[in-house]
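Bug #77: duplicate submission created two jobs. Keeping one. Sequence:
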Amino acid sequence: MLIKWVDSSYTQPGWQDRETLEDWAKDKDTECYTAGLVIHEDKRHIALALSMNEHQFADVFKIPKRQIVSIQELGKVDA
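Kept job's structure:
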């Protein structure tokens, strides 16, 4: 599954003037893409494993559904 989602962001640490912060706040959201095997899905989240072997999963990534823009099925894996 390939998920396109919007990430949260924050400013650089330290003092900044209001104009700089307003420009940053108006900037477009950061869109991210994550591909993996769905290991869990419920009303609030989708959890994807980025790697797997015969018995285990690694690098599991949980994405809140409210941040998801689109979902694309990539195909079936026999595991």
